[in-house]
C-alpha cells in the first residue's frame, strides 16, 4: 500500500482516550490519523461507563456532552449495604459532589453509546482507519514511523499510544528505550498487578430499584456495585479477591466459561434484602470476567512517543474513574501538542525538542494519576474489607456519609485537567467548588507541615501552663481553706462548698470559686473591673468557637469539641487551653477545606439560637455573679456560671430542634444561609464587648488604663498577697487568650492572603488590629476580625479557581464562546 504522509500526530487506539484526543487535536487544527485494530469504533460488549465531572468538563469543551446526556442516567442515591443487603447508609451526597459543586452530574451509560458519540463528533471521519494492527515503530530525529500488519506505513511527528492496558505502542516504546532507560523499562514490565477479579455486564432492572440507584455491597473478600441505569438497564460489577497478588505476565485471563462459573458462585449474594445476584444474572447480556489490573508506569514518554490512558495508568473500576482519567490524560497531552505546534511555526521540531515537551505532559499528570490509582484501589479494598484499617475506614465513612461521599468525589475532581486552548464551559464556572489546579486530592497540604508552622502555639501552651501552674495557687489559698472562710480587709464570708448537691461536682468547683472572691465580692475593684471586661470579651471567643464547631469543614476535627476546651479552660485557665485549641485547629483546617463554598456553612438553626443561649447561660449568670445584692447569691451564680460550657452545649442542642435544620438543602442551594445569623450574633456581642471596654476605660481612669487592662504588672508567683496574686493570674490568663486569638487570626489571614482571597497588606492589617484593640477592646477586635474572614470565605474564591471573576481578572479568557457553552 502507498505510504501515508501524515506529518503530525499518529494516534493508536480508538477507545475513549484516543477518540477524545482526536477530537481535541481536530479542534486545535492539528493533523492526526487514528489507527484502530478492531473493525468498529463502538463495539457492544456489555460494558458500561461512568461519566464524571473531570471527563465531562472536557467533553463539554469539545461540544460532545450534550449528545451524551440523553443516553445516560445520573446517580441519584448512593446506598452502602451489608452482607444481608441491608442499608448501612443512604445518601444523596453524590449529587453534591457532582452537579452542585462541579456543574456536572455523575452518570452511567453504555460504553458503546459513549464511543459512538465521541467518534461521530470527529468531523473528518477519513482520519479514522479501522483494522489497523501495528507491528513495529521506528523513530528518527525528524519523524516517527508506524508499520501495520497489512503493510501500511504512517509517518508523523508524534506517536500516541492510546491502545489500552496491553498497549503495543508501549511495548515498542520499551524496546526503543531499553538501552537508555533499562531500569525504568524493567520496572514498568512488572508495574501492573492484580489482586481482584471483576465480573461485569448489563442486565434488565428487576422490580425494586429506581433509575439512578447505586448499590455498593460490603463483604469480606468480595464486594459488588449495582447501578440502575436508563431504559430499564442495570450495570453490575461483582468483585472478588484473588488467591494472591499477581504481576506482569502472571495476571490471570479468563474465558466465557470461567465467567459463567464465577457468576454461579455468587448467585446467592444479597444485593438488597429482597434481591440476590441471581435476579440480575438471569437477564445478563454478554458478561465478562477480568482480572482488575492496577498500576502507574514510570515511563510514559520516550522520544516522539507518548502513552495515555490505561497505557500509562490503570485503576480499579469501583468508582468509575478509569475512562475519565484517560480523558484527562488526553486533554493534558493535547495541551502539550498544541504548544509544540504553536512553537514550531510550521517548522519540524527536533526529536530532542519534542521529547522535552512530552515529558512535561507526564510531569503534569503523574502526581494526580498516582493518587487516582491509589484512591480507586483503596476504595476496592475498603469495600472488600481487606484489612482492619480498611474496615475502620469504612466505618468512619458512615459517621458522616453525605459529607464523606461528596468530599471524596469532589476532591477527586477538583484539580483535574481541561483543554487550555478552549474556553472553560459555563457549567463549570458558577458552581460551589470551581475546578482548581492548586487544590484537590493530589494537592493537599501536609498536616505535619501545618503542625510545624503552628509550633509557636505549642510553645505558648507549655510556657503559660508553667506560669499558671496550680502549684502557684495553693500557698495563697491554704489559709482560707484552713479558716473555712474568706477574709479581707474590712470583711469576711464563709466559703460556700455546696450548690449542686452532687459532692464530686461541688468539690470540683468550690476551690476555684474561692479564687474569684476578690473579683465578685468587690474587695479588689481593679480586678473586678478587668474581669468584667474579660468576661464580655470571652463571650465573643465562646461564640466564635461555637460557630466553628458546627462548620462543615471542621467535621471530625477537634474544633467540634469546644465544650471540652472551654470546660478544661475553666479548670486550668482559658489562656492555657486556647493555644492548644488554635494549634489543633490550624493543623486540621487548611484553606483548601473551603474550596467548596458549602464547606464554610454551619447549621443555621444553631446560629439562630446561639445568641439567646449565650445571653441566658453565659452573660446573664456572669453579670449576676458580679451584681447580685448578696455575697451568697453572687457565689451561687458563680457556681452556675463555672459550668457554662455544659449549659451552652445542652441548650443549643435542645433549642436547635425548635428551629428546623435546613443544612441538607442549604448545602446545595444556599450555602451562606447561616451568615446573617452569624453576623448578627458576632456584631451584637462585639458591640457589648466594646461598650464594656469603653465604659471601663472611661470610668475607671486613672485607677485602670488600657495597658493595665491588657498587661500584667508582674508574674503571679511574684505577688506577695492573695489579692494581687489573683489579679495578676487573671491578667496573664486574659493576655494569653487575647494574644493567642490574634495570632490564630494572623495565621488564618496568612492562609487567605496565600490563596489570593485577601489583598490587604500586613502593615494595614496590623494597624487595624492595634487601633481596634485600643478603641474597641480585644474581644470586639477578635469578633470583627473573625467575621471579616467569614465574609471572605463566603464571597471570595482561591486565586487559581477557574471562575468568571478570576478569568476576567487574569487574562480575559472567558469568551463569548465559553459563556455560551452548555450549562
TrEMBL record:
Q: Which residues cross the membrane?
A: 452-476, 561-586, 606-626, 638-658, 732-750, 762-788
Q: Name one GO molecular function term.
A: monooxygenase activity
Task: Keyword check for Oxidoreductase, yes or no.
Answer: yes
Domain of life, per UniProt, equals: Eukaryota
Domain FAD-binding: from-to ranges: 9-374
UniProt keyword terms in alphabetical order: FAD, Flavoprotein, Membrane, Oxidoreductase, Transmembrane, Transmembrane helix
Q: Name one Pfam family in it.
A: FAD_binding_3
In its keyword annotation, does this UniProt entry include Cytoplasm?
Answer: no
Family (UniProt) = Belongs to the paxM FAD-dependent monooxygenase family.
Q: What is this protein called?
A: FAD/NAD(P)-binding domain-containing protein
Lineage here is:
Eukaryota, Fungi, Dikarya, Ascomycota, Pezizomycotina
Amino acid at each position: 500500500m502507498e505510504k501515508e504522509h501524515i506529518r503530525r500526530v499518529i494516534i493508536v487506539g480508538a477507545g475513549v482516550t484516543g477518540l477524545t484526543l482526536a477530537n481535541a487535536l481536530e479542534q486545535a487544527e492539528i493533523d492526526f490519523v487514528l489507527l484502530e485494530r478492531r473493525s468498529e469504533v463502538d463495539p457492544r460488549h456489555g460494558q458500561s461507563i461512568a461519566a464524571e465531572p473531570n471527563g465531562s468538563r472536557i467533553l463539554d469543551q469539545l461540544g460532545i456532552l450534550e449528545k451524551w446526556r440523553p443516553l445516560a442516567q445520573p446517580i441519584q442515591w448512593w446506598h452502602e449495604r451489608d452482607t444481608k443487603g441491608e442499608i448501612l447508609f443512604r445518601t444523596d451526597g453524590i449529587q453534591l459532589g457532582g452537579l452542585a459543586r462541579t456543574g456536572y452530574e455523575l452518570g452511567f451509560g453504555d460504553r458503546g453509546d459513549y464511543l459512538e458519540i465521541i467518534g461521530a463528533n470527529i468531523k473528518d471521519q477519513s482520519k479514522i482507519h479501522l483494522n489497523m494492527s501495528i507491528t513495529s515503530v521506528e523513530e528518527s530525529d525528524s519523524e516517527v514511523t508506524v508499520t501495520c500488519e497489512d503493510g501500511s506505513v504512517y509517518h508523523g511527528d508524534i506517536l500516541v499510544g492510546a491502545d489500552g492496558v496491553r498497549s503495543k505502542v508501549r511495548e515498542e516504546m520499551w524496546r526503543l528505550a531499553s538501552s537508555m532507560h533499562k531500569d525504568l523499562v524493567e520496572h514498568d514490565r512488572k508495574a501492573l498487578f492484580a489482586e481482584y477479579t471483576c465480573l461485569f455486564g448489563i442486565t434488565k432492572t428487576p422490580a425494586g430499584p429506581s433509575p439512578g440507584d447505586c448499590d455498593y455491597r460490603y463483604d469480606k473478600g468480595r464486594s459488588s456495585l449495582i447501578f440502575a441505569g436508563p431504559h430499564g438497564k442495570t450495570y453490575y460489577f461483582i468483585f472478588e479477591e484473588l488467591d494472591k497478588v499477581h504481576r506482569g505476565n502472571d495476571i490471570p485471563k479468563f474465558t466465557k466459561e470461567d465467567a459463567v462459573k464465577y457468576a454461579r458462585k455468587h448467585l446467592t449474594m444479597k444485593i438488597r434484602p429482597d434481591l440476590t445476584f441471581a435476579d440480575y444474572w438471569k437477564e445478563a447480556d454478554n458478561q465478562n470476567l477480568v482480572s482488575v489490573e492496577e498500576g502507574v508506569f514510570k515511563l510514559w514518554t520516550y522520544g516522539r512517543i507518548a502513552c495515555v490512558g490505561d497505557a500509562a495508568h490503570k485503576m480499579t473500576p469501583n468508582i468509575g474513574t478509569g475512562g475519565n482519567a484517560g480523558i484527562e490524560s488526553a486533554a493534558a497531552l493535547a495541551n502539550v501538542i498544541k504548544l509544540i505546534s504553536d512553537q514550531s511555526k510550521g517548522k519540524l521540531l527536533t526529536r530532542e525538542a519534542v521529547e522535552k515537551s512530552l515529558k512535561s505532559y507526564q510531569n503534569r499528570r503523574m502526581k494526580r494519576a498516582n493518587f487516582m490509582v491509589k484512591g480507586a484501589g483503596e476504595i476496592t479494598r475498603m469495600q472488600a474489607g481487606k484489612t482492619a484499617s480498611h474496615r475502620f475506614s469504612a466505618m468512619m465513612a458512615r459517621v458522616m456519609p453525605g459529607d464523606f461521599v461528596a468530599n471524596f468525589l469532589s476532591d477527586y475532581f477538583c484539580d483535574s485537567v481541561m483543554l487550555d486552548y478552549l474556553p472553560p464551559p459555563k457549567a463549570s464556572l458558577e458552581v460551589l467548588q470551581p475546578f482548581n489546579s492548586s487544590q484537590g486530592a493530589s494537592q493537599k497540604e501536609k498536616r505535619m507541615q501545618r503542625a510545624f508552622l503552628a509550633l509557636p502555639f505549642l510553645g505558648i501552651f507549655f510556657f503559660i501552663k508553667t506560669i499558671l501552674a496550680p502549684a502557684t495557687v495553693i500557698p495563697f489559698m491554704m489559709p482560707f481553706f484552713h479558716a473555712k472562710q474568706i477574709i479581707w480587709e474590712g470583711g469576711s464570708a464563709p466559703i460556700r462548698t455546696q450548690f449542686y448537691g452532687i459532692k464530686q461536682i461541688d468539690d470540683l468547683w468550690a476551690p476555684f470559686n474561692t479564687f474569684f472572691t476578690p473579683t465578685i465580692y468587690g474587695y479588689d475593684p481593679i480586678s473586678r473591673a478587668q474581669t468584667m471586661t474579660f468576661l464580655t470579651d470571652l463571650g465573643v471567643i465562646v461564640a466564635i468557637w461555637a460557630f466553628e464547631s458546627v462548620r462543615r469543614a471542621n467535621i471530625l476535627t477537634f474544633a467540634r469539641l469546644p465544650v471540652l476546651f472551654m470546660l478544661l479552660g475553666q479548670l486550668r485557665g482559658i489562656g492555657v487551653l486556647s493555644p492548644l485549641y488554635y494549634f489543633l485547629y490550624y493543623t486540621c483546617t487548611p484553606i483548601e477545606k473551603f474550596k467548596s463554598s458549602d464547606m464554610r456553612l454551619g447549621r443555621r438553626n444553631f446560629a439562630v439560637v446561639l445568641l439567646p443561649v449565650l445571653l441566658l447561660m453565659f452573660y446573664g449568670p456572669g453579670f449576676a455573679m458580679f451584681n447580685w445584692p448578696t455575697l451568697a447569691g453572687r457565689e451561687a451564680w458563680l457556681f452556675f456560671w463555672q459550668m457554662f460550657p455544659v449549659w451552652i452545649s445542652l441548650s443549643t442542642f435542645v433549642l436547635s430542634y425548635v428551629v428546623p435544620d435546613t443544612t441538607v438543602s442549604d448545602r446545595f442551594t444556599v450555602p451562606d444561609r447561616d451568615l446573617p445569623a452569624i453576623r448578627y450574633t458576632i456584631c451584637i456581642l462585639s458591640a457589648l464587648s466594646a461598650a464594656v471596654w469603653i465604659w471601663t476605660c472611661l470610668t475607671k481612669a486613672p485607677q485602670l488604663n488600657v495597658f493595665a487592662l491588657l498587661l500584667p504588672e508582674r508574674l503571679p508567683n511574684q505577688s506577695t498577697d492573695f489579692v494581687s496574686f489573683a489579679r495578676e493570674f487573671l491578667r496573664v490568663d486574659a493576655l494569653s487568650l487575647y494574644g493567642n486569638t490574634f495570632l490564630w487570626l494572623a495565621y488564618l489571614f496568612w492562609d487567605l492572603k496565600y490563596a489570593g482571597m485577601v489583598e490587604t497588606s500586613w502593615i494595614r492589617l496590623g494597624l487595624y488590629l492595634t487601633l481596634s484593640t485600643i478603641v474597641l477592646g480585644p474581644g470586639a477586635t477578635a469578633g470583627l476580625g473573625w467575621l471579616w474572614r467569614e465574609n471572605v470565605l463566603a464571597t471570595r474564591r482561591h486565586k487559581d479557581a477557574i471562575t468568571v471573576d478570576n478569568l476576567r481578572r487574569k487574562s480575559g479568557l472567558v469568551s463569548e464562546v465559553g459563556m455560551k457553552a452548555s450549562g
